[in-house]
Design a protein that fits this description.
Number of strands: 0
Structural class: mainly alpha
Oligomer: single chain
Number of helices: 2
Order of helices and strands: HH
Distance between the termini: 33 Å
Largest sheet: none
Shape: rod-shaped
Length: about 60
């Protein structure tokens, strides 16, 4: 996970915790949403990396 995604996830956790402590359900939901977004972006990036690896292995000129 990149530093930006890790920071986004951490911000989401902080926002969620703040919402829980203050009773602000909207802030809590925003925090959960931010965390989910960071996880999804990480998964999307990993999928792209895997696809590139497959492409590279199929077009390897050393065969």
């Amino acid at each position: 996970m990149t530093d930006k995604k890790a920071m986004d996830k951490l911000k989401g956790k902080a926002k969620e915790a703040t919402g829980k402590v203050t009773g602000d359900r909207r802030k809590e939901a925003e925090g959960k949403s931010d965390q989910t977004k960071a996880k999804a972006e990480g998964a999307l990036g990993a999928t792209g990396d895997r696809a590139k690896g497959v492409k590279d292995s199929l077009t390897d000129d050393d065969r």
